[in-house]
Amino acid sequence: MPHGKSPRENTLIETLLPKDTNASGHIFGGVVMSLMDKAAAVASWRYSKQRVVTAGAEEITFVTPIHVGEVVRASATVIYTGRTSMDVEVIVEAENIFEESSRLAATGLFIMVAVDDQGKPTPIPQWQPDTEEEKKKHKEGLERRKIREQKKSR
User: Three-state DSSP class for 42?
Assistant: First the structure.
């Protein structure tokens, strides 16, 4: 990916089955988080052209329940890059095909780290935001990074 270009959105689509539901007939949160993690990994692979590992997940919010048989769409976009890490925003929508309706189901932020063949962190291309929205998300990423570094030093 050329430096300075906005990472394109990556989308995974899945239909979840009864085995993925709790006693209320809603999809388990852990199943949704797994789909979000996969979408974040794909976005990170495409951006960095490297293997990646999940270093963390923050700000995961379940907005509405997902029902068995609905189509689930997890869209992931790299919104900030460090030297070896990427913040990836993931948005999950649930779609009822028969009612022709969709809604926001969950959101989250995943921190992915590029690794070499030995599993050691490896540098990635640096992304520079272009639009005002990208600049805002980049600034928020810098703030999150500072907070993470403060927590590590404690």
Answer: helix
